[in-house]
């Protein structure tokens, strides 16, 4: 059982470094007057939501960052996300990405010359070229045009300002994130998109909305995601209100009304 330390609760202004957004919240065990940096935000999110791994900070850049190691091998974006989730910080160029993800993010042409044919005949994801054409048209519309480099890092290690923060989790954890985001507005503001890289990186960048991916079949296999996992991409400038809601919302650590606690027992008595 986790130990609760008896620190005095203090109110302060939460500000995610680099975002320009600030929110007044109940700081809990945080020292008075201290800004909430990415490291602190990541720790609170991981603890409250019981995440397996870290939130992943991602940025599309026009030039290679000087303070990150370069990804040295060819890989898919779904593999890179998993690596950053487990603690690695790095950048890659479009040439390091061996899947259509580099095209979906507007970084470079797809390495597959006949991608429509590949989706129909090799991957067997769609039934016809017409269906593949529609799918690819949508990803092209959503592709950002910000540069040929991608930076990845666990949120707590990100020395750059992310465009988007990715969360890998169960439907329960992802649902909590959506309600934390909607706590002040009452608006569930999301877009579902596949494949993964388009849905949770490109969509949040180009629309400003939270992107949801159920993990397309190839991505799930390459990245070795669990059957129960899915991913959301949160625009970085929306992360402060999620963090600010953690102690206020029942989707975070706020205690629900007694009837909500008893309801499962009433519905499913033992």
How would the blueprint of this fold be written?
Elements: E1 11-15, E2 22-26, H1 38-49, E3 56-61, E4 69-70, H2 77-85, E5 90-93, H3 101-104, H4 115-122, H5 129-142, E6 149-154, E7 164-169, H6 171-181, E8 190-192, H7 196-207, E9 210-213, H8 217-223, E10 230-235, H9 239-244, H10 258-267
Parallel strand pairs: 4-5, 8-9
Antiparallel strand pairs: 1-2, 3-6, 3-7, 5-6, 7-10, 9-10
Overview of the structural elements:
There is one protein chain. This protein has 270 residues and is α+β, with helices and mostly antiparallel strands. It is built from ten helices and ten strands. The protein has helices at residues 38-49, 77-85, 101-104, 115-122, 129-142, 171-181, 196-207, 217-223, 239-244, 258-267, and strands at residues 11-15, 22-26, 56-61, 69-70, 90-93, 149-154, 164-169, 190-192, 210-213, 230-235. Helix 2 (77-85) packs across helix 8 and helix 4 crosses helix 5.
Keywords, separated by commas or semicolons:
single chain, 270 residues, alpha+beta, eight-stranded mixed beta sheet, two-stranded antiparallel ribbon, 10 helices, 10 strands, 34% helix, globular, disordered N terminus
């Amino acid at each position: 059982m986790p130990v609760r330390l008896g620190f005095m609760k203090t109110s302060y202004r939460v500000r995610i470094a680099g975002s320009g957004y600030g929110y007044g919240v109940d700081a809990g065990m945080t020292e008075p007057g201290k800004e909430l940096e990415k490291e602190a935000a990541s720790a609170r999110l991981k603890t409250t939501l019981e995440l397996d791994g870290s939130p992943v900070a991602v940025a599309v850049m026009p030039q290679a960052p000087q303070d990150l190691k370069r990804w040295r091998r060819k890989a898919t974006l779904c593999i890179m996300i998993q690596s950053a989730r487990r603690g690695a910080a790095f950048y890659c160029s479009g040439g390091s990405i061996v899947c259509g993800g580099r095209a979906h993010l507007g970084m470079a042409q797809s390495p597959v010359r006949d991608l429509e044919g590949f989706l129909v005949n090799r991957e067997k994801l769609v039934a016809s070229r017409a269906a593949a054409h529609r799918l690819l048209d949508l990803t092209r519309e959503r592709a950002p045009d910000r540069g040929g480099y991608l930076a990845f890092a666990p949120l707590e290690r990100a020395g750059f300002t992310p465009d988007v923060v990715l969360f890998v989790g169960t439907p329960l954890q992802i649902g909590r994130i959506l309600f934390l985001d909607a706590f002040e507005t009452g608006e569930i503001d999301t877009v579902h998109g596949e494949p993964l890289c388009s849905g949770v990186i490109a969509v949040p960048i180009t629309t400003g909305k939270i992107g949801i991916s159920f993990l397309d079949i190839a991505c799930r296999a390459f990245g070795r995601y669990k059957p129960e996992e899915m991913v959301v991409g949160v625009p970085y400038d929306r992360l402060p209100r999620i963090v600010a809601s953690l102690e206020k919302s029942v989707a975070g650590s706020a205690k629900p009304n007694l009837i909500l606690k008893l309801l499962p027992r009433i519905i499913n008595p033992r």
